[in-house]
Amino acid sequence: MHDYRRLLDLHGVTWGEKLIPYVGEVHTSAYLMNGYDYWNACFRRLGGTRRDMDARMGELDLDVVVRDALGGDVLDNLAALRLTPEGHRLEARTLAVLDDAPLSTTLLLDSSMPEEVTVTVDGVAHVVPPGGAKLVAITSAGTVIAGEPIDLGALTRRARAARVRLRAGFPCRWAVTSGDGQGWYPRGAVRALDAQLRPYFHGDDLEVDVPAERLTVSVTRGMEYGSATVDVEPAPGEELTVELTPERLYDAAAHGWYGGDLHVHLNWMGDEPATPERAAAAQIGEDLHVLNLVAGNVAGNRVYDRELLEEWVGRDLPWSDESHVARFGVEYRNDLLGHFSAFGLTGMPTRFHSGFGDSPDTHPNSAPLAELRGLGAVTGYGHPFHTNLSDTDPPDRAVAAGRNCSAREIVVDAALGLIDSLDVLNHSSIQATAVVYRRLIGAGNRLAVTAGTDAVLSISRRGTASSPPGWERVYAWVDGPLTAVSFAEAVRRGRTFATTGPWLELDVGGHRPGDTMRPAEGDTVTITARTVGPEVEWLQLRTADGVIAEGGPGLLTAELTVHEPTYVVAVAGGGPHPRSMHPGGAYAHTSPVYIGDHVARRADVEWCLRWLDLLEPLLDADGTFASAAQRAAHRDLHDQARQVYRARLRAVSGS
């Protein structure tokens, strides 16, 4: 942790990582929350295609990117000093400061001057180039010198201090806000914002210093609970106790279902290095049954939290109990073939990434997958796709050119039985991932639906990355006590559904997800799906041939007459909702109940074969190989997968 603090102090929120697109986005997101604004600003500065922009990221002045992305707006955490030929003006959202507490914020020096300008802030001189911008930390509300003194008094308003004591009876997620939306936190807490810009922190029986004015206090505890809210107004100097408990919407563990987040980073750049204690508070405060903290690199060889993985591999982290299991795992990363996580490791792997810096794409993902599974891990591709994809689209868009961490090798690894799951619930395109998932299982592959948020505890302000772990979850039905082993086995067997919040049940003739049933041809089976959660607006039942029934939330039933092997899944969703932190709204998807042993639909197998054909020109254009043998290893693996799919196609054709 001390080393990460040093990296932050030396390099800022990027921790010295090479400037590639998502490193730049972490920098700008320390101030902005909208990645779309960030990308637009990058395009305006660099122009060209997305691939051109990726190659030229090092040319960017990220302080200017922040200025451009704002487009003249002023944020709560970022005041602006406009330096213009007509004069200088200060623009800010005023922040409340308690009694004599110091101000701590950032000032954007934004120049439209034709010459460089020297600005002195807190006694330190900063040179702003012509038309440039610079972000400067400030710790006082005194004056700035830019040719003439500028009063910073508009940045703050002084407020009389009070205190609230927060009690729910068990650890929860809290938010305390004043009327202007400013968040208030316990002393020493990270000032985190979730994807909906709501401040939050975790714990119980907590003290928070607040202004003596009207405040809103809210409490919740992960997706199995609703939220409770109350307005209070403590008097100056008063300590006011607020007792507030969220209502439980459903109790998954009571029915043998345990929710996990299989992709969470403790440290991965950011504005505040995170400790295991913070992870513990978040897991218990969210009542997240299973937490997989993954060690992983960013843009080079450094693997964040590798030391903690080495210390704790194969063992539960100290705060684990009979209903909460926390482990350290791995995110293996290759930005051409895809990233995947591993949960339940029994020993240390030897590979963590390829294709970064001077390292070539030395091997297909199959090699680290085999090693991780040999170490007892359950594996799954994470944040798989970042584009729109409909049920009728060819796979071309999902395998588009460029290095962007899409899960391009999953069609290969699924055919060869090398991967266990796919994070259909992720922070990127759920819709595209669900389409790919159903194509894969329709082509004869057996994969579990899982969820990984990619939450980063060392980042406090970056959309879903700074949302609490478990804002999406994979629920797995565990036959017996919850352990890392039993949860991993339930995922392997496909006894899962994944969700942004809704509870989703599926029953097919008495069978649950992960089961295989073998009715006779012509038999009719009854299918039932049920949801719980105020965010659900629609519910579907789907087979390999598409939607067979749909309706509103609650209960949906259909009859299916069996003529050939197929699968059944349930899917539920809705629009934006306070309980769903995904920008696409509410969503839940089950793993299949398989009807017949060998599900293989011609259209889906051909779709996967088309995918394999697209991989070859992609690797030729964007792969980095140190030898012909390395390139050949990928081609050979693709040929093995092609043979599997062609054999399935022959079986479907009866020849």
UniProtKB/TrEMBL annotation:
Q: InterPro entries this protein is in?
A: Pol/histidinol_Pase-like
Q: Which superkingdom, per the lineage?
A: Bacteria
Record NCBIfam families: CehA_McbA_metalo
Q: What is this protein called?
A: Uncharacterized protein
Per the UniProt entry, what species is this protein from, by scientific name? Answer: Nonomuraea angiospora
Q: What is the lineage of its organism?
A: Bacteria, Bacillati, Actinomycetota, Actinomycetes, Streptosporangiales
